[in-house]
Write a sequence for this structure.
């Protein structure tokens, strides 16, 4: 059976990544969104196994040591990572998997699995990103400053991705994302078997 | 200004390449289909500059010597090739160019222009290809045998392409082709400038 594709999606906070992925997942039933593990406590409304798998630092570290994490990073004193087992299970069943992770983790995944397709979602500009974050009105100016600074660092790492797309207009962004998914299924790396099949009994 | 993309499309006779390209060109106004040059005589109904540029063998050879051909091949005693000048002109104006050429020429283009995107259109099977050629009813069995043999050789070279897509259902094939066009505009190679622009004044 043909293995699924692994997609890694990164975007700074405020780029509409969540909205794009929700639409994509609605339309594509052969896509599985991986759930990350974290050592931070669940926030109100968050559900174990939906938003994150909430595990202890001991469990997390033991997973790292046994090679159970595809990627991980420490952020504000907590660990975040992608449990490898479920991802590989899905891929082996021919299901495509999306990891929604930050840029450092993305580089680890590319290192471990060269065939992973890395997609970076850009804001139209850093100024626009700041405007969007301000508009939410949920955070202090200081926090927004930090987020913008982080965003700039993440955007700089977009050069290491396979695809970059801009979320300027949501509908266009969704179309771009779908084109990347579709085209990445048509690469020669994914279809050497198909050529053999066409030539069968020739 | 951002340069256009160069696409090379190959498919054995009977794979519906012409129909797919006609639809794609209708929908995409920023695409230019390159017209090849040939030393063979125009057939009835063919128009110079539309089907081919009809030139003499002397002219053709002098173009080869002066480096004016992006690729060329000899076939049944005649030369066929892609005049380089027009292609480069369009690319430099930001227009995407499609070359509809056979596999040997495609390899020459990839050699000369690494950034070219090579797309191979497969038939569902060689048996189906034979069926389609028979259905046309315009050719002797012997000629069909030769075409099928050529098709097999061409399909074997599809492993050197960037993308392979199957023309099983026309509508799907057109969608696949469009996804490849769109996604190839979103690769990091084509968008390093965009990252710089997003970061401007950050």
């Amino acid at each position: 059976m043909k293995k699924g594709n692994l997609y890694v999606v990164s975007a700074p906070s405020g780029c509409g990544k969540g909205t794009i992925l929700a639409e994509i997942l609605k339309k594509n039933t052969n896509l599985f969104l991986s759930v990350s593990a974290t050592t931070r406590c669940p926030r109100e409304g968050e559900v174990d196994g939906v938003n994150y798998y909430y595990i202890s630092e001991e469990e997390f570290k033991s997973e790292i040591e046994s090679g159970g994490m595809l990627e991980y990073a420490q952020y504000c004193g907590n660990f975040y990572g992608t449990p490898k087992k479920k991802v590989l299970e899905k891929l082996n069943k021919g299901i495509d998997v999306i990891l929604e992770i930050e840029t450092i983790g993305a580089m680890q995944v590319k290192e471990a699995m060269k065939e992973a397709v890395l997609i970076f979602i850009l804001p139209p500009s850093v100024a626009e990103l700041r405007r969007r974050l301000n508009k939410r009105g949920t955070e202090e100016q200081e926090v927004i400053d930090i987020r913008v600074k982080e965003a700039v660092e993440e955007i700089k790492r977009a050069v290491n991705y396979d695809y970059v797309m801009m979320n300027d207009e949501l509908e266009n962004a969704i179309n771009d994302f779908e084109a990347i998914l579709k085209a990445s299924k048509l690469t020669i790396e994914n279809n050497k078997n198909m050529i053999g099949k066409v030539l069968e009994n020739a």
In short: The beta strands of chain B are 6-10, 31-33, 37-38, 53-54, 69-75, 78-83, 96-100, 117-122, 163-166. Residues 121 and 165 of chain B are 5 Å apart (CA to CA).
